[in-house]
Design brief:
By secondary structure, this protein is α+β, with helices and mostly antiparallel strands. It has two helices and six strands, in the order ββββαββα. The chain has a single domain, classed as Nucleic acid-binding proteins (OB fold (Dihydrolipoamide Acetyltransferase, E2P), Beta Barrel). Strands 1-3-4-6-5 form a five-stranded mixed barrel.
Amino acid sequence: MSYRINKVLFEGNLTSDPKYNKTTSNALVVNFRLANYRKYMTSKKEVKEETCFMNVVAWLKIAGICQKQDLRKGDLVWVEGRLQSKPWTTSSGNKRNSIEIMAESIRVTKKKDKKINNEEIEEDIKEKENE
């Protein structure tokens, strides 16, 4: 069997505060939603803007880094990971499918109303990788 590339880079603002949970085996997981904005010009020279929303899931070490960085609504983050399909069924029995990013790396680009220290973030990542 051959494998295909599944890699995504996405930068956006958190639409709300992240939701942290622990599984029954005490594994930390975080879920949040990002909004990415794009401006473009139509053929009639009108400037338009569109927004793309993406759900993000981070586990274990990456979730811990998110928690330590105190992510909040409005923060700008850069996420690297893979796309994952999540099937579900509506209450009326219709099958649906959603796509989310399974985060493998997260970088805080800009904290809303705060300065960030990228050197501290890099140290945190190295510490988590060595655990």
